[in-house]
Design brief:
5-stranded mixed beta sheet; about 35% helix
């Protein structure tokens, strides 16, 4: 009876709907990508998978050629080696085939590269400023004056202040709140040394250079909390300036902006 009961419980668990947990932060022993949340991140992942097909095929073929060469041309099989001076057909094949492979790789690569720089009439613009060692964010779209923009600093939460469920070295006191299904422009710079604003799930990694404004487009396709870190060595606390982006529905974003404006 016990075995029969256990089988019934197992069958009920397997038939129950399972909600998929999104992987929007690094996980222990993670080998693959984080789940994409933007078309750009999805394009990067798809290009990687397509390239792996070519890489594996070429690696298998080259390994097979080397194995046959070592097998057929070792001294025990061919005491007197033959001299091959020229082979027109084989030279054409090994010149044309790699060229075709490179063309097949280049076409989607160029399309993805151009889309990385395509800023489509952004509805929201934010500015990320890197400091040693924290980030400052400005929402200037809603400013009524030069000093009326939404601005706040984002610091990592220390280990001794973490709450249950928060991620060590990744949680911050002030998250970047952005709306989903909206064209967003992120302007990135630095106040002191080189930094880099990088969020893997969003497919974003852009250098923050003092005295220079770089920009990246965002179109977040789903709600979630996405974690990133500074990805440019910027000093002793380089590993302690994380980035947290919270994507919310447009209505929630409008409410958040209204609350921030009231606090100014």
């Amino acid at each position: 009876m016990a075995l029969y009961f256990n089988l019934l419980v197992l069958a009920s668990l397997m038939s129950a709907p399972v909600s998929k947990a999104r992987m929007d932060a690094p996980e222990p022993w993670q080998m693959g990508f984080q789940d994409p949340a933007t078309p750009i991140a999805q394009g990067i992942m798809d290009l990687h998978h397509d390239l792996m097909v070519f890489i594996i095929a070429v690696a298998v073929f080259v390994t097979w050629i080397l194995g046959r060469t070592l097998s057929h041309f070792r001294a025990s099989n061919n005491p007197l080696p033959q001299k091959i001076l020229h082979g027109t057909a084989i030279e054409i094949i090994w010149t044309v085939t790699p060229s075709l492979i490179l063309i097949a790789i280049a076409v989607p690569s160029f399309a993805l590269l151009y889309s990385l720089d395509e800023v489509v009439d952004p509805a929201v613009t934010i500015k990320a400023i890197g400091h040693q060692w924290y980030w400052t964010y400005e929402y200037s779209d809603y400013a009524q004056s030069d000093e009326g923009s939404i601005q706040f600093d984002s610091y990592m939460i220390p280990d001794d202040e973490l709450e249950l469920g928060q991620l060590r070295l990744l949680e911050v006191d002030n998250r970047v709140v952005l709306p989903v299904n909206t064209h967003i422009r992120v302007v990135i710079t630095a106040a002191d040394v080189l930094h880099s604003w990088a969020v893997p799930s969003l497919g974003v990694k852009c250098d923050a250079v003092p005295g220079r404004l770089n920009q990246v487009p965002l179109y977040i396709a789903r709600e979630g909390v996405f974690y990133g870190q500074c990805s440019e060595l910027c000093g002793v606390n380089h590993g302690f300036m994380p980035i947290v982006v919270e994507a919310v529905p447009l209505e929630n974003y409008v409410d958040w902006v209204a609350e921030r404006i009231e606090d100014i």
